Amino acid sequence: MKTKNLIAGLAIVPVFLTAGCKKADSSTTTVIPVQTTVAATVALASTSSFVVLAGSTITNTGLTSVTGDIGLSPGSSVKGFPPGICVDSLYINDPTANQAKLDLTTAYNDAAGRTATDIVTLSGNIGGLTLTPGLYKSTSSLAISSGNLTFNAMGNPSAVFIIQIASSLTTTSGRQVILSGGALASNIFWQVGSSATFGTTSIFQGTIMAMQSITFNTGATLNGKALARTGAVTLEDNTIVLQ
Predict the structure, then answer these.
(1) pTM value?
(2) Does the structure show a pLDDT above 50 at 9?
(3) To bridge 77 with a disulfide, which of 54, 57, 63, 186 should be the other Cys (CB 3.0-4.6 Å)?
């Protein structure tokens, strides 16, 4: 399959020594190819009402606010509600949660199996980039650590973004995912091969489907869904809003 490779990092610029030892100016511009293949949405079925769904445990510390359903299957331990607030319903290892987990598996496999002739390959730190609609793939881990990440729907609010990540996803403290050009959090899908971790006070957008666990550090915000297939979801003074 033909791919377009993108290395998200700093370019190494040669430094030439001159009289007076002037420091060479260095900069980099990363151009993201605009894809022509239109990505279809990932069907979530009964999982669509869940803002938090986990496999083993759900643990909260502090005054987390969750708008949307919370579900756990096959685990049975949900701690920290209260003081955390669940605006909607809580389902613990019951038929509703069990079906949501089955539908999550289907959605995860759908996202992981997507292909396109103009798929764009991402690598390393993607902070500072702007992504346009389409399918993106990383063969290792991704981080948002040296700038904010922007999704630009280019004027199409129906535009879909799918990011396939073979390993982990992390953001550092205070980093943000920004929506522009009509992009919607409900149309962004993160398929994470291991676990996702969100830094203190970071702001994230989209549906996170992680094979293992999802951890939100103090004050992190999610507009979307946190869906962990086998592991835990850990919360601490967070704001999680269903999108």
Answers:
(1) 0.88
(2) no
(3) 57
